[in-house]
Amino acid sequence: MGFITVDNTLRKIDTTGGPPETVASLPNTASRSGTWNQNGDIVLGSWGGGSGGPLWRVSQAGGAATAVTQVDVSKGEFNHTWPTFLPDGKHFLYFRSGPPDVEGMYVGALDVDAADQSRQRILTGSVPAVYANGYVVFPRAGTLMAQPFDARRLELQGMPVPVAQDVQITWYYTGVFSVSGNGVLAYRTASASETSQLTWFDRQGKALSTFGPPGTDTSIALSPDGKLGVVKDSPYGVPGDLWTLDFASGRRTRLTFHKEVYSPGVWSPDSARIAYSAGHLGDTIYEKAASGLGDEQVLFKEPGLRHFLTSWSRDGRFLLYHTENAPRTGYDLWALSLRDRRPQLMLGEAFNEWAGVFSPDMRWVAHVSLETRVTAQVYVRPFRVSGQGQPSLGEGKWQISKDVGNWPQWRVDSEIVFNTAPSGTAVFAAPVNTNGTAFESGVPQQLPFPPKTGVDATPQSTPDGQRFLVEVSPVQRAARTSISVVLNWPVLLKEVK
């Protein structure tokens, strides 16, 4: 059995027992999807949800990982992932993510150069498929389908047949299922409780009131004046639409209409406009009047890269965002100048950086980094603007979180609030002092809020910091998600025929 550790080391362990053995150190883009043939070849995918990259090949005996496919950036490809060996041990199926005219399943071969792999798409779709028992198995709108595949001619045959209903699709449209070569199928059932209730809490954790009925709204952002909110009606990483919330009247009003918004909404400092990324998985940055009047305006477009907006500077000059699929560096932090609409790289190390937010006085930027390669942590760095209007991060770096930290938010100048997702659901607040030349922070203290539903759902505070709007699951996630196991599942297909 093989597995990848948090420091991107591939290890193997005998299923009968014994200590794990190191196989290889992997590139940063290598992900947890992989396949192992009978000849000792291992092929690994790149991150399905972020870092761009090809498929990687390594021998079970050890050695360096080499690219077995090549990402075609000119065609807007993001990454190659979810490989599955075919019975001959030479060919494999894999998923290419990118624009609609590219996305889908392809056939690769170990004896073909990375740049020369076939460009013929055998299955169109936004969710990866796998091969097993002579079939290609893939989700379609929550239904798991199976279609015969000729492994010698390398082509689909017949028509797809449903195998299971209500299969969960997680972030970036990955199906939560697995099929084995001996006819066993396991899948996780989509939960009907993936809803949340927007709830106001005080700092002591007392529920004060709710806003609207339970729903799928996520990624709350309060306007700087605290009178309005904006939410996305789909989970993290899944395109949807933005809606504005009027706390005085209780109205929830649709702001966008194309079901292609990728990032949360980000408020302008005067609470009059909202910026967001949309297009194909966020390749375009837009802004629109918060009132809904008029059309959205394109601020910046960069085909082939996913953009995720996180903060608008107090002076209105800059937008912070991160890209999620740079070919060699994964998640990178950028600032977009609204004066000339030119982006400037803030952080682009080999490890991932994301979720940048300006301090209210614009002297600092809080962000998340995976530089320890073990857990995400929240850091603060100085923010500088040159005489020519060029933004950059200054010298110095201070770690705010202790064990893990993600998706920070500033509360005025005296506190940074962050959560521990995706490894947990706790919310912490760290006192900070931004008045000196050096940054100072205190020990983070956990806030007494109930579990949240969204990955990026750090509670939003009112301007005075006394109330927080939290996404709360009505059932507090008490119900366990069901995992179904089907033995000899190909028999079901014969019964359908």
Short description:
This protein is mostly beta strands and 497 residues long. Helices cover 1% and strands 47% of the residues.
Overview of the molecule:
- The protein has 497 residues and is an all-beta fold.
- The protein has two domains: 125 residues, Neuraminidase; 277 residues, 6 Propeller (Neuraminidase), CATH 2.120.10.
- The strands form twelve sheets. Strands 12, 13, 14, 15 and 16 form a five-stranded antiparallel β-sheet that branches. Strands 35, 36, 37, 38 and 39 form a five-stranded antiparallel β-sheet that branches. Strands 40, 41, 42, 43 and 44 form a five-stranded antiparallel β-sheet that branches.
- The protein is globular and about 65 Å long.
- The two termini are 36 Å apart.
Strand and helix layout:
Blueprint: E1 2-4, E2 9-12, E3 21-25, E4 30-36, E5 41-46, E6 56-59, E7 66-67, E8 79-85, E9 91-97, E10 104-109, E11 121-124, E12 130-132, E13 135-140, E14 143-150, E15 155-156, E16 161-164, E17 169-170, E18 174-175, E19 177-179, E20 184-188, E21 196-202, E22 207-215, E23 218-222, E24 228-232, E25 242-246, E26 251-254, E27 266-267, E28 273-278, E29 284-289, E30 297-301, E31 307-312, E32 318-326, E33 330-337, E34 342-347, E35 353-358, E36 364-369, E37 377-385, E38 391-393, E39 398-399, E40 406-411, E41 415-419, E42 427-433, E43 440-441, E44 445-447, E45 460-461, E46 467-472, E47 483-487, H1 490-496
